[in-house]
Amino acid sequence: MSISSRIALCTAAAAAVFATVVCGAPAFAATVSPAPTFNIQVTIASTCAISTAPSTIDFGTPSKPLNDTSYVSSPISGSTSFALTCTSGVTPSSLALSWGANASASPRKMANGANRISYDLYSDSGYTTVWTPSSGGPSISTGSGTPQTYTIYAKITDTVTPPAGTYTDTVTLTVTY
After folding, report:
1. Taking the complete model, does pTM exceed 0.85, yes or no?
2. How far apart are CA 105 and CA 117, in angstroms?
3. Which of 13, 95, 117, 158 has the fewest CB atoms below 10 angstroms from its CB?
4. What CATH number does the domain located at 48-176 have?
């Protein structure tokens, strides 16, 4: 190999190294033919989930007996809210509240041993629509992928004052979609 051929070869090699270092790419690039392809996919499930659970409804400690007539116009009441998040376009068929652990029909019952206090849960702040395991729930919004908030209103319906103590119940919220 002649000197001029060696110089030309060294110059070409130096140019390739320079292009790789300075430009970040080889001086002589090639592509695979045919170029491979691949798919990308995701499956979005139709789903609903309670994103914020309802909290305890605490009626407090009434200052008067439950049969006091002032409770007719100003009932012992409370409320709690929950947030439901459903996939966009999914509409739950029902939001049901159980009768609780101490009753099998309206009115629901809070218990302290064998003693009971009647109360009920409502879907409206006027306490006119009892929210049951099969009806009375609020209008259900179609899912948008963001939380939808629903409120549960509660009112003591008993007019007999039982013995002192703490009365409790446990209610289950069921979402069917």
Report:
1. no
2. 14
3. 13
4. 2.60.40.1090
* pLDDT tens digits for range 162-172: 999 999 999 99
In whole angstroms, give the CA distance from residue 8 to residue 64.
Answer: 107
Extended strands (E) in the chain: 48-52, 77-86, 94-97, 108-112, 115-122, 148-156, 173-176
**Cα 168 from Cα 80, distance rounded (Å):** 16
Structure tokens at 71: 């409770």
Tell me the C-alpha distance between 65 and 161, whole Å.
Answer: 6
Euclidean distance between CA atoms 134 and 159, whole angstroms: 27
Round to whole Å and give the CA distance between 36 and 10.
Answer: 36
- End-to-end distance of the chain based on CA atoms, in angstroms? 82
- Three-class SS state of 19: helix
Q: What is the pLDDT of residues 91-133, one digit of tens each?
A: 999 999 999 999 999 999 999 999 999 999 999 999 999 999 9
Q: How many CB atoms lie within 10 A of CB 26?
A: 11
What torsion do the CA atoms of 14, 16, 18, 22 make, to the nearest 10 degrees? 180
Token pair of 52, please?
């914020």
In Å, the largest CA–CA distance within the chain is 118
107 preceded by a cis bond (ω within 30 of 0): yes
Q: Given a cut of 80, is residue 25 above it in pLDDT?
A: no
